[in-house]
Amino acid sequence: MSHSEVRSRDSRTGRRTASLFRQARLAGVERRCDLDAVCFEDELEILDSRYADPGYTACLICNPDGTGGGIFLAPGQEGGRRRFSIAHELGHFHIPSHRRRREEGAMCGDREMRTGASDPADVEWEANDFASELLMPTRQFRIDVANRDISTGTARELASESFYEVSVTAAAWRMVQLSSDACALVVTVDGKIEWACRSEAMRIPGLRHGTSVSVNTLAGAGLRGAESETRPLEVDVDAWLEPRYPVRGKLLESTHLIRSTGQVVSMLWLVDADDEAYGA
Question: Given the DSSP bridges, would you call strands 106-108 and 58-62 parallel, antiparallel or unpaired?
Fold first, then answer.
C-alpha cells in the first residue's frame, strides 16, 4: 500500500468516528447539534480562559482516569467559531487513536483548526474532520447544498442557526471539501493569501500562501473598502490561477468580509464556458 493510500484511508478516521457518534448519541438530529448537551453528557466543562492570549485557541484537559475534564477556550470566540473549537476538542476526546493527545493535554491554535489532509499533523486534521462531520454531517449537508451555487451567499445561509450554526468560513470549507465541482476557498489578510483549500477537481496551480491579491479580484475590491459580494460573479481567471495553464471556463468569485479580523473570505468556482446558470 502506498503512502498516499495510507493517508487516504486514515483521513476518514475523524469523519467515521463522528458519523458513528451521531448515530449513537444524536439519532434524529439532522442538522444543528447541541454541543452543550454533548459536553454535559461527556462530563466536559466548557471554560473561557482568563488570559487574553493563553497560547491556544482551544485546549482539552482530561481527568487522569480519562473520563471527563474541561475544554478551555481563548476569549473572543463567538457563535460558529466557538462551536468549531469545541467540536475539534471533542474529536480529540472521542477518536480512539488520540489517547496520547488526551493524556498530554491537547493545546490547539488557529493553525491546527485549519489543518487539512495534506498536512503532516495527522491528529489535528482528524480532529477537524470529526468537527466538520459532527457539526455538518455529510449526508444532510449534501442534500442542503444540492442545486445551490458555490458562493459565500450559500455558505452564509448554511452557517445560520436555521441550518448548522457554524462560521461562514467553516460552511464554505465544508462545501469545498464535499464538492465534485472545481472550486476553492481562499482567505486573504492584508492583501496576501493567508490560506486556501480546494476541491479535488480544482487542479490548476495557484492560490499559494503569501501571494499578493490582484486588484482584478473581488477580494481586492473588498480590501479597498468594497462590501461583501455574496453572488458568484465572473473575474479574470489569471487573477487567481496560474496564467500559463490554459483554462476553458469561467472563474466565478464571491466574498465574505470579516472586518474584525481584516479577513476576506473568497469562494472560487470554475464553471463551463457555456454555463449561464449562475447569478447575473
Answer: antiparallel
Cell of 117: 489532509
**Which pTM does this prediction carry?**
0.84
241 pLDDT higher than 80: yes
Is 1.10.10 the CATH classification of the domain at 3-135? yes
Tell me how long the chain is: 280
CATH code of the domain made up of 139-271: 3.30.450
Q: What confidence tier does 11 reach under pLDDT thresholds 50, 70, 90?
A: low
Give the cell for residue 29.
Answer: 438530529
Count CA atoms closer than 13 A to 19's CA, side-chain side. Answer: 12
Residues 6+ apart with CB under 8 A from 50: none
- Give which of 66, 72, 19 is closest to 45, Cα–Cα: 72
Name 254's Cβ contacts closer than 8 Å, sequence gap at least 6: 151, 152, 153, 218, 229, 230, 231, 232, 233, 266, 267, 269
Q: Which amino acid is at 54?
A: P
pLDDT tens, residue by residue, 169-207: 999 999 999 999 999 999 999 999 999 999 999 988 889
Domain ranges of the chain: 3-135, 139-271
